[in-house]
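Input.
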Amino acid sequence: MEENKTELKLIQMSEIEAEEVSWLWYPFIPYGKLTIIQGDPGDGKTTMVLNLAAKLTKGETLDEGMDCSEPVNVIYQTAEDGLADTVKPRLESAGADCTRVMVIDESDKSLSMVDERIEEALKTTKAKLLILDPIQAYLGGGMDMNRANEARDMTKRLGALAEKYK
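Output.
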């Protein structure tokens, strides 16, 4: 059985033009890139991102490493917590401007990272931050997170969207 061979193409780094990275929160969250916050259950990942979102909706920062001079819109998707009994109370407790936090309605169809509604929501709201909590819930039914090529394709797509709407 003959394999389809892909032609070897090499790129010299001298041919690559370096680009400046702009940061939402240096050195943790770059604009236009995919950032994954990892930790064990109960470590406070959701609390941290909701507090970050709350600050951003008011144009405030967590520390001097953050670049936020005006209030921004945030899209927050969760597959684990109730919006009315968990997410909104946490946002309010953190002092968020809840008019700047949007959720894509999944009542008709569950959302996945390949869903065109994500790009439409980013374009419509001009959100500077999209949070998928947890990211595994938005991979889509046919995607196996343990298969590197599938996960890489998915993260490239999200990265391209982030770059487009930064």
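The helical segments are 45-57, 83-93, 116-125, 148-164.
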